[in-house]
Amino acid sequence: MREVFRQVRYTNKAFWRNPSSAFFTFMFPLLFLVIFTTLLGNGEGQIRPGETIKASTYYVFSMAAFGLITACYTNIAMSVIFSREEGVLKRVRGTPLPARSYLSARAIHAALVGFLLVAITVVFGVVVYDARVPSAQDMVRFVTTLIVGAACFASIGLAITGVVPNADAGPPIVNAIIFPLLFLSGVFIRVDANSPDWVIWVGRIFPVKHLLDAMRDSYLGFAFHWSDVLVLAIWAVVGVVVAVRTFKWEPGR
User: Fold this and answer.
1) In the predicted structure, residue 49 carries a pLDDT above the cut 60
2) Residue 130 φ then ψ, to 5°
């Protein structure tokens, strides 16, 4: 554990020493929050039968989910791919630092950045749009969802690096996998019972919708379904298994 936390500190220093990347990492969720509430208005809408909320409240927790996914999936996948292609991973592999410590540190740091993103998004929504805040009794479910969700998308991010052949292919492949799911799962546009059946089924299969639903229910105090957290945990295990089998330490050829 000492090795892991030492590597977390190193990864954190490297992250903040690239201020441009860090700035836009934290700006994207807030930027989308402002854009969607500006274009679509801040009126109240029905999120489920008998339950209505303001659009700003909806986009606060959905953009918080987007921030967590960005930090734990997109950023970790991109940074690991670039490190591999620059030969950094090959050199790390030749040191006494165990592989599990290095990769665990990357995942933990990504989760910490994701948690900070969620906190900033929630505070921004409360201050600017007077959005509601999870109650104390709902906070345990909300935090549990964040932890399991971070583990899920960090493991998937590491797994994806094994199928990306080189640095040039990284951004197209990583974004092509996640962005359609963000739209089909209701992160950017609400998905309800009137949506096409195939859209609903995609949401049920992949983890993005389950993260969004679990964050919504815990954030708004709705009936919480632990099955959403279970699906995230299953995808986390799948991501770890795939990452163990496909992860590459040397640049592609």
Assistant:
1) no
2) 55, 40
Q: Answer whether 73's CB lies under 8 Å from 232's CB.
A: no
Band (193; pLDDT cuts 50, 70, 90): low
- Mean pLDDT value across residues 85-113: 89
Q: How far apart are CA 202 and CA 171, in angstroms?
A: 23
Residue 205, CA distances (Å) to 8, 199, 210, 244 in order: 32, 10, 9, 22
User: What's the confidence (pLDDT) of residue 43?
Assistant: 65
Q: H or E stretch including 245?
A: helix 226-246
What are 110-131's pLDDT values in tens digits? 999 999 999 999 888 888 887 7
Amino acid at 76: I
> 223: Cβ–Cβ under 8 A, 6 or more apart, which residues?
217
Token digits of residue 41 = 């208005």
Rounded CA-CA distance 83/187 in Å is 30
Give the CA distances from residue 61 to residues 56, 75, 111, 149, 252, in Å, rounded to whole numbers and listed in that order. Answer: 9, 20, 17, 14, 38
The runs of H, that is alpha helices, within 162-225 are 170-184, 197-205, 207-220
How many whole angstroms separate alpha carbon 79 and alpha carbon 154?
12
DSSP conformation class of 136: H
53: β partners: 45
Give the residue among 99, 98, 65, 62 at the shortest CA–CA distance from 80.
99
pLDDT for 150 beyond 70 = yes
Angle at 71 between CA 79 and CA 127, to 5 degrees: 145
